[in-house]
From TrEMBL:
Pfam family, one: polyprenyl_synt
Organism of origin: Darwinula stevensoni
Protein name as it appears in the record: Uncharacterized protein
Signal sequence region: none
GO biological process: isoprenoid biosynthetic process; pheromone biosynthetic process; ubiquinone biosynthetic process
Family to which this protein belongs: Belongs to the FPP/GGPP synthase family.
GO molecular function: prenyltransferase activity
Record-level GO cellular component terms: mitochondrion; transferase complex
InterPro entries (UniProt xref): Isoprenoid_synthase_dom_sf (IPR008949), Polyprenyl_synt (IPR000092)
Keyword terms, alphabetized: Transferase
Keyword Transferase: yes
């Protein structure tokens, strides 16, 4: 079962002893029953709050050597981004998703936080040992966050093929399309500066997969859900992880394992927030992540921090109790 332990280097969520296929208990009645059945270590999960999550992120940022909360800030502070923000005023009062995305960006909601870039840097640090992170690796983390921002904006484009769009909807769609494309152009420019055709190929594949996800039918099975989830979100993390180890000059085997690690982590991350997915899939993917981390990457503060952030992302530190 899941156990919360204290690691010699500090507060940790490490020590997943086994990964049984369990049923996620939702609702107040299920939660009460879960609490009554839980062990002392499981009950500790219930006491977690945003302060604990903040400590995990703070520790992870200490490991990588600098704060990662504003990895995409360079793109956001450009003249073009300022012009986009100016035009956003025209949409105030409307219900276009672009406004919600902008608000989430400004308030720092977890979906908008720079966690993908942080995971890229933690994995790079794990593979690199005592070597400091290179400028290229930091730039890659910025690229991943910028691509993610562009994807979130593009996801706000409303499908209006059956309706006559209102003025606000049409304007919002144009702004979402152009602003998302702008951030993708910024990311592409930064990719070119890395001087690595392999990295450009990998990250271009992530952008391609996101575009393909719009042409995949609504999933009717768990397998179809995983396929679409990979195209929509998983490909960016998987290719980002492989690109990070490519820049670290890791072995071909380790680069391939990094790709698998990213795809499994993304599936667990998305599955945690989806009511269409059996929670046993989340636990299975977490088990696969742990297996790769502990088998192929050396024990280090970076590996521990990576693991702790991953458990936080998949919800185990707050509300999801499995018995």
């Amino acid at each position: 079962m899941w156990r919360l332990t204290c690691h010699p280097r500090g507060y940790s969520l490490v020590d997943v002893m086994a990964f049984p296929v369990l049923t996620l208990m939702r609702g107040s009645a299920g939660l009460s029953l879960a609490i009554r059945r839980s062990t002392r270590s499981l009950s500790m999960f219930l006491q977690w709050d945003e302060r604990d999550w903040g400590r995990i992120i703070l520790n992870a940022e200490k490991v990588v050597g600098y704060p990662t909360s504003y990895l995409s800030l360079r793109s956001l502070l450009s003249d073009e981004a300022a012009n986009i923000a100016l035009h956003l005023k025209k949409l105030l009062g409307s219900h276009h998703p672009l406004i919600s995305t902008a608000k989430a960006l400004m308030t720092g909601e977890r979906e908008m936080s720079q966690l993908r870039g942080l995971m890229i840097l933690l994995l790079s640090k794990t593979a690199g040992g005592s070597q400091p992170l290179s400028i290229q690796q930091r730039s890659l983390a910025e690229v991943v966050e910028t691509i993610h921002l562009a994807q979130l904006i593009h996801m706000g484009i409303q499908d209006q093929q059956d309706d006559i769009p209102s003025g606000d909807d049409a304007l919002g769609n144009r702004m979402a399309t152009l602003s998302g494309d702008y951030f993708l152009a910024q990311a592409s420019h930064s990719l070119a500066l890395l001087n690595s055709t392999k990295v450009v190929e990998l990250m271009s594949g992530a952008i391609r997969d996101f575009s393909l996800s719009w042409f995949v039918k609504q999933p009717e099975s768990q397998e179809e859900w995983e396929e679409k989830a990979y195209l929509r979100r998983g490909s960016l993390l998987a290719n980002g992880f492989q690109a990070a180890l490519t820049l670290a000059n890791a072995s071909t085997y380790l680069q391939a394992q990094a790709f698998v690690l990213g795809s499994r982590l993304a599936a667990a991350w998305q599955g945690e927030s989806s009511f269409k997915v059996d929670y046993s899939l989340v636990q299975l993917r977490i088990a696969e992540v742990k297996d790769i981390l502990w088998r192929d990457f050396p024990d280090s503060d970076a590996r521990l921090a990576f693991w702790n952030v991953m458990l936080g992302l998949t919800g185990l530190e707050t509300k999801n109790i499995s018995i």
